[in-house]
Amino acid sequence: MTGHHWGYGKEDGPSSWYKNYPVAEGNRQSPIDIVPNEASHDRDLGPIMTNYDHCTSINISNNGHSVVVEFNDSDDRSVIKGGPLDNPYRLKQFHFHWGGKGHGGSEHTVSGEGFASELHLVHWNAVKYKTYGEASTAPDGLAVLGIFLETGDDHRWLHMITDVLYMVKYKGSITDFKGFNPNCLLPSSLHYWTYLGSLTTPPLHESVIWIILKEPIEVSEKQLGMFRMLLFTEEDDDQKMRMENNFRPPQPIKGRRVRSSN
Ligand SMILES: COc1ccc(N[C@H](NS(N)(=O)=O)Oc2ccccc2)cc1OC
Ligand SMILES: [Zn+2]
């Protein structure tokens, strides 16, 4: 039995996580509502740089909370650097959060507005920490790049992911997913907001430097609908619970500053 069971339902959802994860009521929890004109422009906040060219995706899986693409993080091939980061952070995995049909599903909101979905690219500080696990509990251990998805036209590369979702329909399913470069999921502008926060799922570690891109990417309702055919439940589970609304709502800002790149 690994850890505590948690989910996004009525009984095991975000409002109950504090019972097993008291840090849920901590001072640097995520996500938050971003209010652009309250964010402070920092001239010394440089551009972020993603270098995913030789990245090595390994597999795609359904972990019962989202669909996750894992990367080989044994060297500095695929990193994010610059901006608020003191050194390069290694790409470990990316995953998505989304809502029900026609509803918001992003975790961060902007002036109270949610987006249809939010993509998180999770990176860890391999310069200061020996392992991902060690980094994940350190205050500057992780850097998560957040990208909003809004509905509109088909995204020309997202089909590479939606085409294989049927292979990971059930919790616990995993399949090879090689040669995918997440550069293709970035919007044209890398302008961002940044603040100190946490993982948005248990264990809710307060170890994340958040970098949220201002420009959303566009995906079609049809592509987003493919994510909703995933299930929270395992193949032999007679309940077929559709995977949707797997997002935590915004948490108290607790005096934190949100900074904005120019
Ligand atoms: C420290 O290593 C971890 C890193 C991340 C997350 N959870 C992550 N948090 S988030 N939303 O802030 O990126 O959420 C999910 C949600 C669905 C799928 C996979 C990640 C959990 C981790 O250890 C368990
Ligand atoms: Zn996430």
Automatic annotation (TrEMBL):
Keyword terms, alphabetized: Glycoprotein, Lyase, Metal-binding, Zinc
E.C. no: 4.2.1.1
Keyword set includes Glycoprotein: yes
Protease in keyword set: no
Family annotation (Gene3D superfamilies): Alpha carbonic anhydrase
Catalytic activity field: hydrogencarbonate + H(+) = CO2 + H2O
The protein's required cofactors: Zn(2+)
Gene Ontology CC: one annotated term: cytoplasm
PROSITE patterns tied to this protein: ALPHA_CA_1 (PS00162), ALPHA_CA_2 (PS51144)
SMART domains the UniProt entry points to: Carb_anhydrase (SM01057)
Region Disordered: start-end pairs: 242-262
Annotated Alpha-carbonic anhydrase domain residues: 4-262
Pfam families: Carb_anhydrase
InterPro entries assigned: CA_dom (IPR001148), CA_dom_sf (IPR036398), Carbonic_anhydrase_a-class (IPR023561), Carbonic_anhydrase_a-class_CS (IPR018338)
Function: Reversible hydration of carbon dioxide.
Similarity comment: Belongs to the alpha-carbonic anhydrase family.
Protein name listed in UniProt: Carbonic anhydrase
Organism: Astatotilapia calliptera (Eastern happy)
Gene encoding the protein: CA7
